[in-house]
């Protein structure tokens, strides 16, 4: 098992979750994506549906909510804090692959965490989405992609005070159009080199 944690952030419809899953299988690491919904629900006492519905949504001000004594935290903030705790706990348990949920930011202070961002051009993403929804027209496909990206960016930017997808926040960014197998090969080599460098540096 490779001694490092890998976070995978991704644009909508790049197949980033499939790349992450294959990478986890290749490296023999636990994989967490939708599983985080179940774990966050247990951590917070909320229903899985409530957690699922609140993902990629944000409230007016997390800091205001945290310091306000007059009301409970909004649901979306409760979910973010619960998922963040779950992510930190999983990282403490050992090497794994974690998809989305601002994991790169949540684990930003760890030195054993490889941060990855998966992106792709609109033609590639449109083709992938069209294969799932062939009845949609090109404009509808583009609108769906733009909407989902906007939600992810808004959520990430709000909770992290960073710019979603900015290369400077990641160790490596990859174009999914290279192909799933190629991306996994590149990330496998990068993870092994990263882990070796951490071992030497430690």
For the biggest sheet, the summary is: 5 strands, parallel
- Number of distinct beta strands: 5
Q: What form results from the Cα inertia axes? A: globular
Total count of helical runs of at least 4 residues: 9
Provide the CATH top-level class. Answer: Alpha Beta
Describe this entry's structure for a reader.
The chain is an alpha/beta fold. The chain has a single domain, classed as Rossmann fold (3-Layer(aba) Sandwich). Helices cover 56% and strands 11% of the residues. The protein has nine helices and five strands. The longest helix is centred in the last third of the chain and has 23 residues. It is globular. About 5% of the residues have low confidence.
Descriptive terms for the model:
202 residues; 5-stranded parallel beta sheet; 11% strand; Rossmann fold
SSE inventory with pairings:
Layout (H helix, E strand, L loop, with lengths): L4 E6 L5 H12 L3 E2 L2 H10 L3 H7 L7 H6 L7 H19 L3 E3 L3 H4 L6 E7 L2 H11 L5 H23 L11 E4 L4 H22 L1
Parallel strand pairs: 1-3, 1-4, 2-3, 4-5
Helix pairs in contact: 1-9, 2-3, 2-5, 7-8
């Amino acid at each position: 098992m490779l001694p490092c944690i890998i976070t995978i952030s991704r644009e909508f419809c790049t197949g980033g979750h499939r790349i992450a899953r294959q990478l986890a299988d290749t490296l023999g690491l636990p994989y967490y994506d939708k599983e985080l919904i179940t774990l966050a629900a247990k951590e917070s006492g909320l229903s899985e549906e409530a957690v699922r519905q609140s993902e990629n949504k944000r409230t007016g001000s997390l800091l205001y909510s945290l310091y306000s004594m007059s009301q409970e935290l909004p649901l979306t903030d409760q979910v973010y804090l619960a998922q963040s705790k779950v992510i930190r706990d999983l990282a403490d348990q050992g090497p794994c692959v974690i998809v989305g949920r601002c994991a790169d930011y949540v684990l930003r202070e760890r030195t054993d965490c490889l941060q990855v961002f998966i992106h792709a051009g609109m033609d590639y993403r449109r083709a992938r989405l069209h294969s799932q929804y062939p009845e949609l027209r090109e404009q509808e496909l583009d609108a769906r992609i733009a909407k989902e990206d906007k939600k992810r960016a808004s959520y990430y930017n709000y909770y992290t005070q960073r710019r979603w997808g900015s290369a400077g926040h990641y160790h490596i960014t990859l174009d999914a159009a290279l192909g799933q197998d190629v991306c996994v090969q590149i990330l496998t080599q990068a993870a092994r080199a990263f882990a070796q460098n951490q071992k030497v540096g430690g």
